[in-house]
Amino acid sequence: MTMANVGFLSLPAELICYILLFLTPRDLCRRAIATCKTIRDAAQNSVQIQHKLELFSQGFTETITPGQDSIDFFRKNNRLKKSALMSRSDFHVNTVFQEAVLAVHAATKETQSLKCGLWWMSRKSDLLIQECNTNTTQTWSNHILSPMPQHELATVVVDPLQDLLVTISSVDSIDVLDVVQAHHVFWLEIRMLSAQAPHPDSACTSLDCSHSFNERGIHDVMFMKEPAICGDRVVVPYCIYADDGGAELMFIQVVDWRRGRAECYPVGHQARNWPHQNNFHLIDRQTFVVIDLQVSINLYTLQEFGGPPQCRIVYCFPTYGSLRHPSCVVHTTPLVQGTAVRPDLMPSYVSFLESQIMVLEMLLPVLPVVLVIDMAIFSKNALHPEGLITIPWLDWGPQHTCCFPHDPSHRISVFGSRMAYALPRYRTPTPGHRLEALSTDGRFYVHIWDFNQRVVARSRSISDSNSPDHLIRKPPFLAHTFYKSDFSSNHFYTTTVCHTSFPTRDFEGLFLEHDRFTLTWVRPDAVDIQVVSPYAVPETKALSCWLRDYIKLITNFWASMTVGIISHS
C-alpha cells in the first residue's frame, strides 16, 4: 500500500488532477484533499477541479442526474457563468430592470431590504413592495400592518419564498405590578405577502407574545433589529429597560409561526447603553450570534421548544482600549430556508455556510473599518460537546478574518462569499489605502471582492502575478488605536470592478444577489430602482477592435514615414 501511494504521488501533477476528476466533489474535499498535501496543491492549481468544487459548494453537481430538471440545471450553470464574470479584472453590465416607484416622503437606506428579487421599503405610513422582475408594485397601509389599538408598528420583515409577511406591534412601556404573572409585550402578525390575507399554513393570524419580569416598575421594550425568519421559525431579539436605571437585559422570542407557539428565553447577555451595541444575527434555524464590538462574538445554539439557548463559543476581540463606545452594522446573505410557496422566486443556488462571509461595518472612533469573517467558524463542525469554549483573537482572527479601512458613506452588500462595495474610484484600492467619502454629486463604482479560497486558487492559476491588474490581493497590516492589537490576516481575496459608474446623488441602497446587483436612489417623490447583470464582451468584437487599432497604428506609422521622406527630399 505504501509503495502504491508513493507511486501515485510521484506522477505528474496534470495526471494526478486527471485522476482526481473521477472522484465525487465530496470525496475530493473530505478524503483526497484533506489528507494529502501533494494532492491538495495539485487540486488548487487545477482550474477544472476548482470549477467542480465551486459547483459543489453552490449546491449542485456538474452533470445532470436522472431525476434532475435539465432546464433548472442549465439555468443554474448559466448563472454561475455570469457570476464568474465578476471574478475577472473588470466586467460590463446590462440593465435587466429599471423602475421609478412613486413614493411620498421616502425613507432612507436603513429601511430598505431585498430578497429573491423582491424589494421592499418600510415607511411611517405604509410598506412599499416592488418585484424586480416585473412591474408589480404593492402598498400596505399602516392600519393593515398594525391593527391593534394603542400599539405602534415596530418592525416589518418579509420572506418572499414562503409568501410570508411578519409584523411586530408594541406599546411604549409596561407597568409591572405582579412579577408572577407574564405580561404582554408585543403582538406578532402573520399574513400572506401576495394577498394581504391570513397565511393558510399558519395556525393563527395574531400571536400574543408575553414576558415574565423579575422586578416591579415601568419597563420599556427595545427591539434590537428586525425579526429573523428561517423556515417555520421566527426569532425576535429585544432588550428590557427599567426606568429606574436597572440592568438592560437581552431576550429572544422564538416563534413557530405554523403552529402558533411562542416562547421567551433570556440570552444571558447584558445590553450596553443602546441595543445597536449588541448585534444579533440568526445563522440558521438552531444557531445565532450576538456581536459586542467591545468584547466578543458569542455563538449560541437553540434547542427545541422548552429549553433556553446555550452559549457554545466566545470569539474574543483584541483588548478594548477606549472610553468611547463603538457601533456596528452586520451584512450577511439573507436566510433562504423552508417550503417555497413562490417557486418562481426560488434562487438558482444558495451557497453553503462554509463558503459564506459575514461583514461587520465597524464604526470605530477615529478610523472606521470593515471586518470580513469567514462563517465557516460558525458551522456545526466548530461546535464541541465539552461545553463553552473561549477562543482568543490570535487563535481565530488572523486565520479567518480580513480587515480594511472604511468610510461610512461607502455602501456594502453581501451574498455568499462576495462583498459588493460602492467606492468612489474605478481602480481597486491598494492595501492599506483609505479612500475618501462618496461625493454628493459625483460618481461611484461597484467593486466585487470574493473571499472564497477556491476562487482565489483558480484566479492564482490563470492570472499573471506581474500584471498591474492582478486580481489577487492580501489585506493590509492594520493597527488600530481603538484596540490594543493589530488586525493582521493570512487570507487572500480576489478583486474586480464594474466598468459602469453610477451617480451618487440620492444614492441609498446596494444589494448583491447571485449574478446581479440592485441599486436604489431615493428622491423626495420616488424611488429609482435599477437591476444590472454582468455580460461578457464577445471575443469577435474584442478582436475587431484590436485589428482596427492595429491597422490605425500601422497607417499612422507609414504616413509619418512618408512625410519624413518627402521632407528630407
From TrEMBL:
RNA-binding listed as a keyword: no
Entry keyword set: Signal
Domain of life: Eukaryota
Signal peptide residue numbers: 1-17
Residue ranges constituting the F-box domain according to the UniProt record: 9-46
Keyword check for Signal: yes
Matches recorded under Pfam families: F-box-like
InterPro entries per the UniProt record, alphabetical: F-box-like_dom_sf, F-box_dom
Protein name as catalogued: F-box domain-containing protein
